[in-house]
């Protein structure tokens, strides 16, 4: 998000067909809630296309990338790594420490979410294994709560650049306006 070190979300694992919507929603949630970039496995090209299309229409900046080696990206990350897992430390216990590393020390953050079973070396490589509750639920829900805690709600105030449309908030009904380029 503007003014802080970069936050990248890494989606580990993608089963074509079965994970299509979940992987796309990881990307859309990362974008909407303040991350700068999402990285999908290279078999998730359809999800990349969908998230890029939303960014083109509703604004950014937000990058979508594919990687042929998520594990290498994790190993070589020049910053801190948060792995979201139901087995991790409670988000409310570690969020301040993570925020300090990210905002005060300017460490780029890699936030890792899984799909199927996550290899154990990911737990070892992470600086923090973080549980959003220690109950099983979803990578999309875990990511949303984690980003909102990380940014302390500031991401909700974000302004979007280069959008060609915007939603006008209203109590009832749906209104989307085109944005004219100057
Ligand atoms: C449906 S879960 C499958 C996890 C798999 N059963 C395992 O043992 O690693 C997919 C992903 O959702 C995320 N997730 C699920 N529950 C979570 C929780 N309570 N806190 C944080 N992340 C969670 C994790 O990133 C996980 O890898």
Automatic annotation (TrEMBL):
Keywords attached to this entry: Cytoplasm, Methyltransferase, S-adenosyl-L-methionine, Transferase, tRNA processing
Q: Which residues bind S-adenosyl-L-methionine?
A: 84, 114-118
Q: What class of enzyme is it?
A: transferase
Gene3D superfamilies recorded for this chain?
Answer: 3.40.1280.10
UniProt GO molecular function = tRNA (cytidine(56)-2'-O)-methyltransferase activity
Which EC number(s) are documented for this chain? 2.1.1.206
> Pfam families, from UniProt?
Trm56
Residues annotated as transmembrane? none
Q: Sorted alphabetically, which PANTHER family does this protein's record hold? A: TRNA (CYTIDINE(56)-2'-O)-METHYLTRANSFERASE
Record note on quaternary structure = Homodimer.
Q: What is this protein called?
A: tRNA (cytidine(56)-2'-O)-methyltransferase
**According to the entry, what is the taxonomic lineage of the organism?**
Archaea, Methanobacteriati, Methanobacteriota, Stenosarchaea group, Halobacteria
